[in-house]
Protein backbone atom coordinates (compact mmCIF):
# COMPACT_ATOMS: atom_id res chain seq x y z
CA UNK A 1 0.00 0.00 0.00
CA UNK A 2 2.86 2.41 0.71
CA UNK A 3 3.92 1.97 -2.92
CA UNK A 4 0.44 2.78 -4.23
CA UNK A 5 0.51 5.80 -1.96
CA UNK A 6 3.96 6.83 -3.24
CA UNK A 7 2.77 6.59 -6.84
CA UNK A 8 -0.38 8.57 -6.02
CA UNK A 9 1.63 11.34 -4.36
CA UNK A 10 4.02 11.26 -7.32
CA UNK A 11 1.18 11.82 -9.78
CA UNK A 12 -0.01 14.83 -7.79
CA UNK A 13 3.54 16.20 -7.52
CA UNK A 14 3.77 15.76 -11.29
CA UNK A 15 0.97 18.30 -11.66
CA UNK A 16 3.17 20.94 -10.07
CA UNK A 17 6.12 19.93 -12.28
CA UNK A 18 3.90 20.17 -15.36
CA UNK A 19 3.00 23.72 -14.29
CA UNK A 20 6.73 24.49 -13.92
CA UNK A 21 7.37 22.98 -17.34
CA UNK A 22 4.50 24.51 -19.34
CA UNK A 23 6.08 27.97 -19.57
CA UNK A 24 9.50 26.63 -20.54
CA UNK A 25 7.98 24.39 -23.19
CA UNK A 26 5.79 27.17 -24.54
CA UNK A 27 8.65 29.62 -25.02
CA UNK A 28 10.87 27.02 -26.64
CA UNK A 29 8.02 25.90 -28.89
CA UNK A 30 7.20 29.35 -30.24
CA UNK A 31 10.66 30.91 -30.57
CA UNK A 32 13.30 28.27 -29.68
CA UNK A 33 14.16 30.43 -26.68
CA UNK A 34 15.26 28.77 -23.45
CA UNK A 35 15.07 30.87 -20.33
CA UNK A 36 17.70 29.72 -17.84
CA UNK A 37 16.12 32.05 -15.26
CA UNK A 38 12.80 30.15 -15.51
CA UNK A 39 13.25 28.56 -12.09
CA UNK A 40 14.10 31.92 -10.57
CA UNK A 41 10.93 33.39 -12.10
CA UNK A 42 9.01 30.70 -10.18
CA UNK A 43 10.69 31.83 -6.96
CA UNK A 44 9.93 35.48 -7.75
CA UNK A 45 6.26 34.49 -8.10
CA UNK A 46 6.49 32.69 -4.76
CA UNK A 47 7.86 35.80 -3.03
CA UNK A 48 5.28 38.01 -4.75
CA UNK A 49 2.47 35.74 -3.55
CA UNK A 50 3.86 35.93 -0.03
CA UNK A 51 4.27 39.70 -0.28
CA UNK A 52 0.70 40.32 -1.46
CA UNK A 53 -0.67 37.98 1.22
CA UNK A 54 1.20 39.77 3.96
CA UNK A 55 0.71 43.38 2.89
CA UNK A 56 -2.90 43.21 1.69
CA UNK A 57 -3.88 40.46 4.09
CA UNK A 58 -5.83 38.64 1.38
CA UNK A 59 -6.41 34.94 0.82
CA UNK A 60 -3.35 33.25 -0.83
CA UNK A 61 -5.40 32.10 -3.81
CA UNK A 62 -6.64 35.63 -4.43
CA UNK A 63 -3.05 36.79 -4.07
CA UNK A 64 -1.99 34.40 -6.85
CA UNK A 65 -4.73 35.74 -9.11
CA UNK A 66 -3.51 39.27 -8.39
CA UNK A 67 0.09 38.53 -9.37
CA UNK A 68 -0.81 36.74 -12.63
CA UNK A 69 -1.33 39.99 -14.60
CA UNK A 70 1.75 41.54 -12.97
CA UNK A 71 4.00 38.63 -13.93
CA UNK A 72 2.42 38.44 -17.39
CA UNK A 73 3.07 42.11 -18.05
CA UNK A 74 6.63 41.79 -16.76
CA UNK A 75 7.15 38.82 -19.08
CA UNK A 76 5.84 40.80 -22.05
CA UNK A 77 8.20 43.69 -21.28
CA UNK A 78 11.18 41.44 -20.65
CA UNK A 79 10.75 39.70 -23.98
CA UNK A 80 10.11 42.91 -25.87
CA UNK A 81 12.98 44.92 -24.41
CA UNK A 82 15.60 42.33 -23.51
CA UNK A 83 15.12 38.80 -24.85
CA UNK A 84 14.10 39.84 -28.37
CA UNK A 85 17.39 41.65 -28.74
CA UNK A 86 19.41 38.46 -28.31
CA UNK A 87 17.21 36.07 -30.30
CA UNK A 88 18.90 34.62 -33.35
CA UNK A 89 21.03 31.88 -34.80
CA UNK A 90 23.75 32.28 -32.18
CA UNK A 91 22.53 30.60 -28.98
CA UNK A 92 25.30 32.04 -26.79
CA UNK A 93 23.65 35.46 -26.17
CA UNK A 94 20.24 34.15 -25.01
CA UNK A 95 21.87 31.52 -22.79
CA UNK A 96 24.21 34.08 -21.21
CA UNK A 97 21.60 36.80 -20.80
CA UNK A 98 19.15 34.47 -19.05
CA UNK A 99 21.94 32.86 -17.01
CA UNK A 100 23.07 36.34 -15.94
CA UNK A 101 19.47 37.23 -15.14
CA UNK A 102 19.18 34.10 -13.01
CA UNK A 103 22.20 35.14 -10.93
CA UNK A 104 20.87 38.71 -10.61
CA UNK A 105 17.42 37.53 -9.45
CA UNK A 106 18.85 35.11 -6.88
CA UNK A 107 21.08 37.77 -5.36
CA UNK A 108 18.46 40.54 -5.38
CA UNK A 109 16.11 38.16 -3.53
CA UNK A 110 18.90 37.18 -1.14
CA UNK A 111 19.73 40.83 -0.50
CA UNK A 112 16.08 41.71 0.09
CA UNK A 113 14.65 38.68 1.92
CA UNK A 114 17.70 36.91 3.35
CA UNK A 115 18.50 33.23 3.05
CA UNK A 116 15.84 31.93 5.44
CA UNK A 117 13.15 29.63 4.08
CA UNK A 118 9.65 31.09 3.69
CA UNK A 119 6.25 29.56 3.12
CA UNK A 120 2.76 30.84 2.39
CA UNK A 121 0.27 29.35 4.86
CA UNK A 122 -3.20 28.49 3.65
CA UNK A 123 -4.79 27.86 7.06
CA UNK A 124 -6.61 24.57 7.44
CA UNK A 125 -5.84 23.66 3.84
CA UNK A 126 -2.15 23.24 4.80
CA UNK A 127 -2.86 19.85 6.28
CA UNK A 128 -6.31 18.99 4.91
CA UNK A 129 -6.65 15.71 3.07
CA UNK A 130 -9.34 13.52 1.59
CA UNK A 131 -9.51 9.84 2.47
CA UNK A 132 -10.05 7.77 -0.65
CA UNK A 133 -10.39 4.35 0.92
CA UNK A 134 -7.98 1.99 2.62
CA UNK A 135 -4.96 3.77 4.06
CA UNK A 136 -4.88 6.11 1.10
CA UNK A 137 -5.37 9.82 1.53
CA UNK A 138 -4.65 12.63 -0.87
CA UNK A 139 -3.74 16.10 0.31
CA UNK A 140 -6.27 18.76 -0.67
CA UNK A 141 -3.61 21.23 -1.78
CA UNK A 142 -1.67 18.76 -3.97
CA UNK A 143 -4.99 17.66 -5.50
CA UNK A 144 -5.91 21.27 -6.15
CA UNK A 145 -2.51 21.88 -7.73
CA UNK A 146 -2.99 18.90 -10.02
CA UNK A 147 -6.42 20.17 -10.99
CA UNK A 148 -4.93 23.60 -11.71
CA UNK A 149 -2.27 21.97 -13.94
CA UNK A 150 -4.88 20.11 -16.01
CA UNK A 151 -7.05 23.25 -16.27
CA UNK A 152 -4.16 25.48 -17.31
CA UNK A 153 -2.79 23.05 -19.87
CA UNK A 154 -6.32 22.75 -21.31
CA UNK A 155 -6.48 26.54 -21.40
CA UNK A 156 -3.14 26.79 -23.22
CA UNK A 157 -4.38 24.15 -25.64
CA UNK A 158 -7.55 26.19 -26.21
CA UNK A 159 -5.56 29.39 -26.79
CA UNK A 160 -3.22 27.66 -29.24
CA UNK A 161 -5.82 25.74 -31.24
CA UNK A 162 -9.02 27.73 -30.99
CA UNK A 163 -8.10 31.43 -31.05
CA UNK A 164 -6.60 33.71 -33.66
CA UNK A 165 -3.61 34.65 -31.50
CA UNK A 166 -3.03 30.91 -31.06
CA UNK A 167 -3.02 30.49 -34.83
CA UNK A 168 -0.36 33.20 -35.11
CA UNK A 169 1.66 31.60 -32.30
CA UNK A 170 1.55 28.22 -34.03
CA UNK A 171 2.46 29.72 -37.38
CA UNK A 172 5.35 31.62 -35.78
CA UNK A 173 6.53 28.36 -34.20
CA UNK A 174 6.65 26.82 -37.68
CA UNK A 175 8.39 29.65 -39.48
CA UNK A 176 8.71 33.05 -37.84
CA UNK A 177 10.26 34.64 -40.92
CA UNK A 178 7.37 33.79 -43.23
CA UNK A 179 4.78 34.86 -40.64
CA UNK A 180 6.66 38.14 -40.40
CA UNK A 181 6.37 38.55 -44.17
CA UNK A 182 2.62 37.93 -43.88
CA UNK A 183 2.34 41.05 -41.77
CA UNK A 184 2.51 39.68 -38.23
CA UNK A 185 4.73 41.51 -35.77
CA UNK A 186 7.16 38.86 -34.54
CA UNK A 187 8.45 41.00 -31.67
CA UNK A 188 4.87 41.25 -30.38
CA UNK A 189 4.09 37.57 -30.96
CA UNK A 190 7.21 36.49 -29.07
CA UNK A 191 6.31 38.83 -26.23
CA UNK A 192 2.78 37.35 -26.11
CA UNK A 193 4.30 33.86 -25.82
CA UNK A 194 6.50 34.98 -22.91
CA UNK A 195 3.54 36.77 -21.34
CA UNK A 196 1.55 33.52 -21.39
CA UNK A 197 4.56 31.63 -20.03
CA UNK A 198 5.17 34.02 -17.13
CA UNK A 199 1.44 34.11 -16.32
CA UNK A 200 1.58 30.32 -15.92
CA UNK A 201 4.80 30.72 -13.90
CA UNK A 202 2.91 33.09 -11.57
CA UNK A 203 0.32 30.39 -10.82
CA UNK A 204 2.99 27.69 -10.55
CA UNK A 205 5.10 29.81 -8.19
CA UNK A 206 2.07 30.76 -6.08
CA UNK A 207 0.94 27.17 -5.62
CA UNK A 208 4.54 26.09 -4.99
CA UNK A 209 4.83 28.72 -2.24
CA UNK A 210 1.79 27.26 -0.44
CA UNK A 211 3.19 23.77 -0.62
CA UNK A 212 6.89 23.94 0.18
CA UNK A 213 9.48 26.09 1.89
CA UNK A 214 11.38 28.26 -0.55
CA UNK A 215 14.44 30.50 -0.41
CA UNK A 216 16.29 32.69 -2.94
CA UNK A 217 18.47 29.80 -4.16
CA UNK A 218 15.54 27.44 -4.80
CA UNK A 219 15.14 28.42 -8.47
CA UNK A 220 17.77 26.47 -10.40
CA UNK A 221 16.62 23.04 -9.25
CA UNK A 222 13.04 23.99 -10.33
CA UNK A 223 14.43 24.90 -13.76
CA UNK A 224 15.94 21.41 -13.90
CA UNK A 225 12.63 19.76 -12.89
CA UNK A 226 10.78 21.80 -15.53
CA UNK A 227 13.37 20.91 -18.16
CA UNK A 228 13.33 17.21 -17.24
CA UNK A 229 9.53 17.15 -17.51
CA UNK A 230 9.71 18.71 -20.97
CA UNK A 231 12.32 16.25 -22.22
CA UNK A 232 10.67 13.18 -20.66
CA UNK A 233 7.30 14.16 -22.10
CA UNK A 234 8.64 15.05 -25.52
CA UNK A 235 9.40 18.51 -26.82
CA UNK A 236 6.50 20.43 -28.25
CA UNK A 237 3.76 18.25 -26.81
CA UNK A 238 1.55 20.00 -24.24
CA UNK A 239 -0.03 16.87 -22.79
CA UNK A 240 3.33 15.14 -23.07
CA UNK A 241 4.66 17.76 -20.67
CA UNK A 242 1.98 16.78 -18.13
CA UNK A 243 2.93 13.12 -18.61
CA UNK A 244 6.60 14.05 -18.24
CA UNK A 245 5.89 15.92 -15.02
CA UNK A 246 3.97 12.95 -13.67
CA UNK A 247 6.76 10.52 -14.62
CA UNK A 248 9.30 12.74 -12.85
CA UNK A 249 7.02 13.11 -9.81
CA UNK A 250 6.48 9.36 -9.49
CA UNK A 251 10.21 8.66 -9.90
CA UNK A 252 10.97 11.08 -7.06
CA UNK A 253 8.31 9.87 -4.62
CA UNK A 254 8.97 6.18 -5.28
CA UNK A 255 12.73 6.83 -5.09
CA UNK A 256 12.19 8.70 -1.82
CA UNK A 257 10.16 5.76 -0.48
CA UNK A 258 13.11 3.42 -1.16
CA UNK A 259 15.56 5.77 0.56
CA UNK A 260 15.03 9.49 1.26
CA UNK A 261 18.53 10.21 -0.08
CA UNK A 262 17.53 8.60 -3.37
CA UNK A 263 14.60 10.95 -4.07
CA UNK A 264 16.30 13.58 -6.27
CA UNK A 265 18.70 11.11 -7.87
CA UNK A 266 15.80 8.86 -8.93
CA UNK A 267 14.19 11.77 -10.76
CA UNK A 268 17.43 12.66 -12.56
CA UNK A 269 17.98 8.98 -13.45
CA UNK A 270 14.55 8.65 -15.09
CA UNK A 271 15.41 11.70 -17.17
CA UNK A 272 18.80 10.26 -18.18
CA UNK A 273 17.26 6.88 -19.01
CA UNK A 274 14.64 8.51 -21.25
CA UNK A 275 17.42 10.55 -22.85
CA UNK A 276 19.38 7.36 -23.52
CA UNK A 277 16.60 5.15 -24.87
CA UNK A 278 14.06 7.64 -26.22
CA UNK A 279 15.76 11.01 -26.70
CA UNK A 280 12.69 12.50 -28.37
CA UNK A 281 10.63 11.87 -25.25
CA UNK A 282 7.55 9.79 -24.55
CA UNK A 283 5.08 11.81 -26.62
CA UNK A 284 7.17 13.73 -29.09
CA UNK A 285 5.12 15.82 -31.43
CA UNK A 286 5.38 19.31 -32.84
CA UNK A 287 3.25 21.90 -31.12
CA UNK A 288 1.35 22.67 -34.34
CA UNK B 1 37.28 17.36 -44.06
CA UNK B 2 39.21 14.77 -46.04
CA UNK B 3 37.40 15.66 -49.21
CA UNK B 4 38.26 19.35 -49.02
CA UNK B 5 40.32 20.30 -52.06
CA UNK B 6 44.01 20.12 -50.98
CA UNK B 7 44.94 23.28 -52.87
CA UNK B 8 42.39 25.39 -51.03
CA UNK B 9 43.35 23.77 -47.75
CA UNK B 10 47.02 24.53 -48.34
CA UNK B 11 46.29 28.15 -49.03
CA UNK B 12 43.96 28.44 -46.05
CA UNK B 13 46.65 27.01 -43.84
CA UNK B 14 48.60 30.18 -44.35
CA UNK B 15 47.91 31.72 -40.99
CA UNK B 16 48.17 35.42 -40.35
CA UNK B 17 51.34 35.30 -38.36
CA UNK B 18 52.44 38.92 -38.05
CA UNK B 19 55.94 39.06 -36.63
CA UNK B 20 56.29 35.64 -35.05
CA UNK B 21 59.88 36.07 -33.85
CA UNK B 22 59.36 39.17 -31.73
CA UNK B 23 56.07 37.94 -30.37
CA UNK B 24 57.57 34.61 -29.38
CA UNK B 25 60.50 36.39 -27.73
CA UNK B 26 58.25 38.72 -25.70
CA UNK B 27 56.02 35.79 -24.76
CA UNK B 28 59.01 33.75 -23.65
CA UNK B 29 60.41 36.65 -21.59
CA UNK B 30 57.04 37.15 -19.89
CA UNK B 31 56.87 33.44 -19.09
CA UNK B 32 60.40 33.47 -17.67
CA UNK B 33 59.61 36.56 -15.60
CA UNK B 34 56.58 34.75 -14.15
CA UNK B 35 58.51 31.51 -13.68
CA UNK B 36 61.10 33.22 -11.48
CA UNK B 37 58.25 34.92 -9.61
CA UNK B 38 58.96 33.14 -6.31
CA UNK B 39 62.28 35.08 -6.21
CA UNK B 40 60.63 38.48 -5.96
CA UNK B 41 56.95 37.90 -5.13
CA UNK B 42 55.45 37.91 -1.67
CA UNK B 43 53.36 35.10 -0.30
CA UNK B 44 49.96 36.71 -0.86
CA UNK B 45 50.88 37.79 -4.39
CA UNK B 46 51.91 34.26 -5.22
CA UNK B 47 48.63 32.94 -3.85
CA UNK B 48 46.68 35.43 -5.93
CA UNK B 49 48.64 34.47 -9.04
CA UNK B 50 47.98 30.79 -8.39
CA UNK B 51 44.28 31.56 -8.34
CA UNK B 52 44.54 33.71 -11.46
CA UNK B 53 46.44 30.97 -13.33
CA UNK B 54 43.86 28.37 -12.32
CA UNK B 55 40.99 30.54 -13.53
CA UNK B 56 42.84 31.36 -16.75
CA UNK B 57 43.20 27.64 -17.47
CA UNK B 58 39.52 26.95 -16.68
CA UNK B 59 38.49 29.92 -18.82
CA UNK B 60 40.61 28.77 -21.78
CA UNK B 61 38.85 25.41 -21.57
CA UNK B 62 35.33 26.87 -21.42
CA UNK B 63 36.27 29.16 -24.26
CA UNK B 64 37.52 26.24 -26.36
CA UNK B 65 34.16 24.59 -25.78
CA UNK B 66 31.89 27.59 -26.33
CA UNK B 67 33.90 29.96 -28.48
CA UNK B 68 35.48 27.46 -30.83
CA UNK B 69 33.34 24.30 -30.73
CA UNK B 70 30.01 26.09 -30.22
CA UNK B 71 29.10 23.89 -27.22
CA UNK B 72 27.46 26.03 -24.52
CA UNK B 73 27.72 24.25 -21.19
CA UNK B 74 26.67 25.57 -17.80
CA UNK B 75 27.64 22.25 -16.23
CA UNK B 76 31.43 22.28 -16.35
CA UNK B 77 31.40 22.14 -12.54
CA UNK B 78 30.62 18.45 -13.12
CA UNK B 79 34.19 17.91 -14.32
CA UNK B 80 35.73 20.26 -11.77
CA UNK B 81 34.05 18.31 -8.98
CA UNK B 82 34.79 14.94 -10.55
CA UNK B 83 38.45 15.89 -11.02
CA UNK B 84 38.75 17.03 -7.41
CA UNK B 85 37.02 13.97 -5.99
CA UNK B 86 38.93 11.48 -8.13
CA UNK B 87 42.19 13.19 -7.19
CA UNK B 88 41.30 12.89 -3.48
CA UNK B 89 40.35 9.21 -3.96
CA UNK B 90 43.60 8.45 -5.77
CA UNK B 91 45.78 10.26 -3.25
CA UNK B 92 43.96 9.20 -0.05
CA UNK B 93 42.43 5.81 -0.80
CA UNK B 94 44.72 4.35 -3.48
CA UNK B 95 47.95 5.90 -2.20
CA UNK B 96 48.93 7.24 -5.63
CA UNK B 97 51.73 9.86 -5.40
CA UNK B 98 50.23 13.36 -5.56
CA UNK B 99 52.02 14.54 -8.69
CA UNK B 100 50.93 11.40 -10.54
CA UNK B 101 47.38 11.56 -9.21
CA UNK B 102 46.75 14.97 -10.82
CA UNK B 103 47.18 13.87 -14.47
CA UNK B 104 45.64 10.48 -13.69
CA UNK B 105 42.49 12.24 -12.43
CA UNK B 106 42.30 13.99 -15.80
CA UNK B 107 42.54 10.70 -17.69
CA UNK B 108 39.86 9.04 -15.56
CA UNK B 109 37.52 12.01 -16.01
CA UNK B 110 38.03 11.79 -19.78
CA UNK B 111 36.81 8.19 -19.60
CA UNK B 112 33.79 9.33 -17.53
CA UNK B 113 33.09 12.14 -19.98
CA UNK B 114 32.57 9.66 -22.83
CA UNK B 115 29.23 8.21 -21.62
CA UNK B 116 28.05 11.47 -20.05
CA UNK B 117 28.97 13.37 -23.21
CA UNK B 118 27.14 10.77 -25.29
CA UNK B 119 24.00 11.45 -23.22
CA UNK B 120 24.38 15.22 -23.22
CA UNK B 121 25.01 15.35 -26.97
CA UNK B 122 21.50 14.05 -27.52
CA UNK B 123 20.41 17.56 -26.61
CA UNK B 124 21.27 20.56 -28.73
CA UNK B 125 21.69 24.29 -28.20
CA UNK B 126 20.33 25.78 -25.02
CA UNK B 127 18.79 22.44 -23.96
CA UNK B 128 22.32 21.03 -23.99
CA UNK B 129 23.25 23.73 -21.49
CA UNK B 130 20.53 22.66 -19.03
CA UNK B 131 21.29 18.99 -19.67
CA UNK B 132 24.92 19.57 -18.69
CA UNK B 133 23.64 21.19 -15.50
CA UNK B 134 21.57 18.08 -14.68
CA UNK B 135 24.68 15.92 -15.13
CA UNK B 136 26.57 18.17 -12.70
CA UNK B 137 23.71 17.76 -10.18
CA UNK B 138 23.86 13.98 -10.52
CA UNK B 139 27.65 14.00 -10.00
CA UNK B 140 27.22 16.19 -6.94
CA UNK B 141 24.56 13.93 -5.40
CA UNK B 142 26.73 10.85 -6.02
CA UNK B 143 29.80 12.54 -4.47
CA UNK B 144 27.69 13.34 -1.40
CA UNK B 145 26.88 9.64 -0.95
CA UNK B 146 30.52 8.47 -0.85
CA UNK B 147 31.00 8.06 2.90
CA UNK B 148 34.73 7.22 2.72
CA UNK B 149 35.23 10.72 1.31
CA UNK B 150 33.19 12.40 4.01
CA UNK B 151 29.76 12.26 2.33
CA UNK B 152 27.92 15.55 2.26
CA UNK B 153 30.22 17.34 4.70
CA UNK B 154 33.45 16.69 2.80
CA UNK B 155 36.97 15.71 3.83
CA UNK B 156 40.44 17.21 4.28
CA UNK B 157 43.68 15.98 2.75
CA UNK B 158 45.82 14.34 5.49
CA UNK B 159 49.00 16.19 6.45
CA UNK B 160 51.18 13.24 5.45
CA UNK B 161 49.99 13.55 1.85
CA UNK B 162 50.45 17.32 1.85
CA UNK B 163 53.98 16.95 3.18
CA UNK B 164 54.80 14.33 0.54
CA UNK B 165 55.04 17.08 -2.11
CA UNK B 166 57.69 18.96 -0.20
CA UNK B 167 58.64 18.91 3.47
CA UNK B 168 58.83 22.71 3.83
CA UNK B 169 55.94 25.16 3.47
CA UNK B 170 58.01 27.41 1.19
CA UNK B 171 58.90 24.46 -1.03
CA UNK B 172 55.22 23.55 -1.34
CA UNK B 173 54.19 27.09 -2.20
CA UNK B 174 56.84 27.33 -4.90
CA UNK B 175 55.90 23.98 -6.40
CA UNK B 176 52.18 24.86 -6.39
CA UNK B 177 52.99 28.16 -8.05
CA UNK B 178 54.95 26.46 -10.84
CA UNK B 179 52.27 23.85 -11.40
CA UNK B 180 49.64 26.60 -11.68
CA UNK B 181 51.78 28.55 -14.13
CA UNK B 182 52.45 25.38 -16.09
CA UNK B 183 48.72 24.54 -16.28
CA UNK B 184 47.83 28.04 -17.46
CA UNK B 185 50.59 28.02 -20.10
CA UNK B 186 49.62 24.51 -21.19
CA UNK B 187 45.95 25.49 -21.56
CA UNK B 188 46.88 28.43 -23.80
CA UNK B 189 49.29 26.35 -25.90
CA UNK B 190 46.75 23.53 -26.16
CA UNK B 191 44.04 25.82 -27.54
CA UNK B 192 46.50 27.58 -29.81
CA UNK B 193 48.02 24.40 -31.22
CA UNK B 194 44.58 22.84 -31.64
CA UNK B 195 43.19 25.85 -33.46
CA UNK B 196 46.15 25.98 -35.83
CA UNK B 197 45.78 22.30 -36.69
CA UNK B 198 43.32 20.59 -39.05
CA UNK B 199 41.04 20.18 -36.05
CA UNK B 200 40.97 23.93 -35.57
CA UNK B 201 40.02 24.43 -39.18
CA UNK B 202 37.26 21.87 -38.77
CA UNK B 203 36.01 23.55 -35.57
CA UNK B 204 35.98 26.99 -37.18
CA UNK B 205 34.02 25.57 -40.09
CA UNK B 206 31.49 23.93 -37.74
CA UNK B 207 31.09 27.12 -35.74
CA UNK B 208 30.48 29.18 -38.87
CA UNK B 209 28.09 26.74 -40.48
CA UNK B 210 27.43 23.23 -39.29
CA UNK B 211 25.59 22.18 -42.43
CA UNK B 212 28.13 23.65 -44.84
CA UNK B 213 31.05 22.05 -43.00
CA UNK B 214 29.32 18.69 -43.09
CA UNK B 215 28.91 18.93 -46.84
CA UNK B 216 32.68 19.42 -47.28
CA UNK B 217 33.35 16.34 -45.22
CA UNK B 218 33.89 17.59 -41.68
CA UNK B 219 32.72 15.02 -39.17
CA UNK B 220 30.93 17.53 -36.99
CA UNK B 221 29.68 15.19 -34.27
CA UNK B 222 33.01 13.41 -33.80
CA UNK B 223 35.05 16.61 -33.84
CA UNK B 224 32.90 18.30 -31.21
CA UNK B 225 32.72 15.18 -29.09
CA UNK B 226 36.51 14.84 -28.98
CA UNK B 227 36.84 18.49 -27.98
CA UNK B 228 34.20 17.98 -25.26
CA UNK B 229 36.08 15.00 -23.78
CA UNK B 230 39.44 16.76 -24.04
CA UNK B 231 38.09 19.84 -22.27
CA UNK B 232 36.56 17.67 -19.53
CA UNK B 233 39.94 16.00 -18.96
CA UNK B 234 41.96 19.20 -18.83
CA UNK B 235 39.34 20.89 -16.62
CA UNK B 236 39.65 17.94 -14.24
CA UNK B 237 43.46 18.25 -14.14
CA UNK B 238 43.12 21.93 -13.20
CA UNK B 239 40.47 20.97 -10.62
CA UNK B 240 42.71 18.28 -9.11
CA UNK B 241 45.35 20.95 -8.66
CA UNK B 242 42.86 23.47 -7.22
CA UNK B 243 41.70 21.01 -4.54
CA UNK B 244 45.27 19.97 -3.76
CA UNK B 245 45.88 23.62 -3.02
CA UNK B 246 42.63 24.05 -1.07
CA UNK B 247 43.42 20.89 0.95
CA UNK B 248 39.71 20.26 1.48
CA UNK B 249 36.83 19.07 -0.69
CA UNK B 250 33.06 18.94 -0.21
CA UNK B 251 30.23 18.43 -2.71
CA UNK B 252 29.08 22.01 -2.24
CA UNK B 253 32.53 23.48 -2.98
CA UNK B 254 33.49 21.02 -5.70
CA UNK B 255 30.28 21.28 -7.73
CA UNK B 256 29.62 24.98 -7.17
CA UNK B 257 28.02 26.48 -10.27
CA UNK B 258 29.01 29.98 -9.16
CA UNK B 259 32.71 29.28 -8.60
CA UNK B 260 33.41 26.98 -11.53
CA UNK B 261 30.94 28.00 -14.20
CA UNK B 262 29.42 31.44 -13.60
CA UNK B 263 32.78 33.09 -12.84
CA UNK B 264 34.49 31.27 -15.69
CA UNK B 265 31.76 32.26 -18.15
CA UNK B 266 32.02 35.85 -16.91
CA UNK B 267 35.78 35.85 -17.55
CA UNK B 268 35.42 34.49 -21.07
CA UNK B 269 32.46 36.67 -22.04
CA UNK B 270 33.85 39.96 -20.76
CA UNK B 271 37.26 39.26 -22.29
CA UNK B 272 36.02 37.99 -25.61
CA UNK B 273 34.47 34.66 -26.58
CA UNK B 274 36.31 32.73 -29.28
CA UNK B 275 39.68 34.41 -28.82
CA UNK B 276 42.70 33.15 -26.88
CA UNK B 277 43.48 36.70 -25.72
CA UNK B 278 39.95 37.20 -24.31
CA UNK B 279 40.34 35.05 -21.17
CA UNK B 280 43.59 36.91 -20.34
CA UNK B 281 41.75 40.23 -20.28
CA UNK B 282 38.70 38.65 -18.65
CA UNK B 283 40.67 37.16 -15.78
CA UNK B 284 42.24 40.56 -15.05
CA UNK B 285 38.85 42.30 -15.09
CA UNK B 286 37.34 39.56 -12.94
CA UNK B 287 39.98 39.72 -10.22
CA UNK B 288 39.98 43.53 -10.21
CA UNK B 289 36.19 43.56 -9.83
CA UNK B 290 36.21 40.81 -7.24
CA UNK B 291 38.79 42.48 -5.06
CA UNK B 292 37.21 45.93 -5.27
CA UNK B 293 33.64 44.67 -4.80
CA UNK B 294 34.47 42.06 -2.16
CA UNK B 295 32.68 44.01 0.58
CA UNK B 296 29.49 44.27 -1.41
CA UNK B 297 28.52 40.61 -0.97
CA UNK B 298 25.43 39.87 -3.02
CA UNK B 299 25.90 43.06 -5.05
CA UNK B 300 29.15 41.61 -6.33
CA UNK B 301 27.11 38.96 -8.16
CA UNK B 302 24.44 41.41 -9.27
CA UNK B 303 27.05 43.68 -10.87
CA UNK B 304 28.79 40.78 -12.62
CA UNK B 305 25.48 39.46 -13.97
CA UNK B 306 24.57 42.93 -15.22
CA UNK B 307 27.97 43.41 -16.87
CA UNK B 308 27.65 40.04 -18.64
CA UNK B 309 24.19 40.96 -19.96
CA UNK B 310 25.47 44.39 -21.02
CA UNK B 311 28.33 42.79 -22.99
CA UNK B 312 25.83 40.59 -24.83
CA UNK B 313 23.67 43.60 -25.70
CA UNK B 314 26.42 46.08 -26.58
CA UNK B 315 29.09 43.96 -28.25
CA UNK B 316 28.97 40.21 -27.78
CA UNK B 317 32.58 39.87 -28.94
CA UNK B 318 33.76 41.19 -25.56
CA UNK B 319 36.66 43.56 -24.89
CA UNK B 320 39.20 41.77 -27.07
CA UNK B 321 36.73 41.28 -29.89
CA UNK B 322 35.89 44.99 -29.84
CA UNK B 323 39.58 45.89 -29.85
CA UNK B 324 40.29 43.51 -32.74
CA UNK B 325 37.48 45.11 -34.74
CA UNK B 326 39.21 48.45 -34.22
CA UNK B 327 42.50 47.25 -35.68
CA UNK B 328 44.27 45.64 -32.71
CA UNK B 329 46.65 42.95 -34.05
CA UNK B 330 46.17 39.40 -32.83
CA UNK B 331 48.61 38.05 -30.24
CA UNK B 332 47.79 34.40 -30.82
CA UNK B 333 46.76 34.28 -34.49
CA UNK B 334 44.48 31.36 -35.26
CA UNK B 335 42.42 32.86 -38.06
CA UNK B 336 43.25 31.80 -41.57
CA UNK B 337 43.74 34.22 -44.41
CA UNK B 338 43.54 33.32 -48.06
CA UNK B 339 46.98 33.92 -49.51
CA UNK B 340 46.35 35.33 -53.00
CA UNK B 341 50.05 35.73 -53.79
CA UNK B 342 50.50 31.99 -54.08
CA UNK B 343 48.69 31.97 -57.42
Structure report:
The complex is a heterodimer of chains A (288) and B (343). Chain A has 288 residues and is mainly α. In chain A, strands 1-2 form a two-stranded antiparallel sheet. Chain A is 73% helix and 2% strand. Chain A has one domain: ABC transporter involved in vitamin B12 uptake, BtuC, CATH 1.10.3470. In chain A, a hairpin with a 5-residue loop joins β1 and β2 (137-139). The radius of gyration of chain A is 19 Å and the shape is globular. Chain A has eleven helices and two strands, in the order ααααββααααααα. With 343 residues, chain B is mainly alpha-helical. Chain B has two domains: 42-255, no CATH class; 256-329, no CATH class. In chain B, 74% of the residues lie in helices and 1% in strands. Chain B is built from 17 helices and two strands. Chain B has helices at residues 6-12, 20-35, 37-40, 43-68, 77-93, 98-120, 125-145, 159-165, 169-196, 198-208, 210-215, 220-246, 251-254, 257-271, 277-293, 298-314, 318-325; strands at 155-156, 248-249. A two-stranded antiparallel ribbon of chain B has the order 1-2. The radius of gyration of chain B is 21 Å and the shape is globular. The two termini of chain B are 23 Å apart. The mean pLDDT of chain B is 88.
Highlighted features:
heterodimer; A: 288 residues; mainly alpha; ABC transporter involved in vitamin B12 uptake, BtuC; 73% helix; globular; B: 343 residues; 2 domains; two-stranded antiparallel ribbon; 1% strand
